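Worked example

This section walks through a single chain of length 345. The input is the sequence exactly as stored; nothing has been trimmed or padded.
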Amino acid sequence: MDLKSMTLEELTRAVWEMGEKPFRARQLYQWMHQKLAADYDEMTNLPKGFREKLKEQEPLTVLTLEERLVSKLDGTEKYLFSLSDGNVIESVLMRYRHGNSVCISSQAGCRMGCRFCASTLGGLMRNLLPSEMLEQVYRIQSVTGERVSHLVVMGTGEPLDNYENLLRFLHLLTDENGLNISQRNVTVSTCGLVEKIRSLADEKLQITLALSLHASSQEKRKELMPVAYKYELGEVLDACRYYFQQTGRRVTFEYSLVNGVNDTEEEAERLSKLIKDMNCHVNLIPVNPIAERDYTPSKEGRIAAFKNKLEKNRINVTIRREMGRDIQGACGQLRRSYLSKGDTV
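Given that input, the structure is written out below as tokens.
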């Protein structure tokens, strides 16, 4: 495991095993997780001999910025980073009144196969290390000079398919010795891996769980999301209920509205009945069109009617404000276009 993925306690042990004084571990930890150093040479209060030893034995995990796009519409920024093995991932910075929010990737690629998502085209390359998830936040904060206060794990990949690394990342991100982002300001999205939702619930973290629901019936969900062939909708929702019981945190249901597929008022009525007993919130998302699929976003009138139907049934609902449309804002689009360029060289 690389140094940036270690807890302070683990790092202290590793530094001691390297023959250094234990207090050097706290200095090293602060350089990595508070000062966001991109190179050992920046760590000026560490002895030169120790820095040389670190360079030789423990390469520092740092992402390389390949591309940065800034939306002329709303200031949203999209970042393409390369990993040490040549894989590429993407992240998004969104500025809100309540603070800066970063959306990070948890995997290079994705194997979940959701029909409307560009992230899954090309499949899964590999899981990201905790340090590689942290680095997306660190590099964006370093580039902009602005503090990140909120985080969503909703970029490329299924976070719960990389469960152990995700869990370690969450602890490091919210550690008071690091960036110290509040757990309540962190959201983790999943397409519904039931066992992992229950395991996460048992951790009793104060993060928000967001379930990618996208349908009000098992049949419709199968049409959009292959994961539905493994898990019945009822058991997924039961896992969400369990998450609320264990954490007291309201669950968010992400619902991508696809024109003519899942956006009727009848669908909204079924959805209301499905979740009426739950402490939840529905986030309606006009689907982002991607070239490889023929799905298009629902019309404004249909979106409004869908929302109204849910509200009449006393379901908390919002329509997600679309951001970054002019900079390939949808999950996986920038990475996909970058990889496609490489294919043509």
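What to look for: Residues 130-144 form the longest helix (15 residues).
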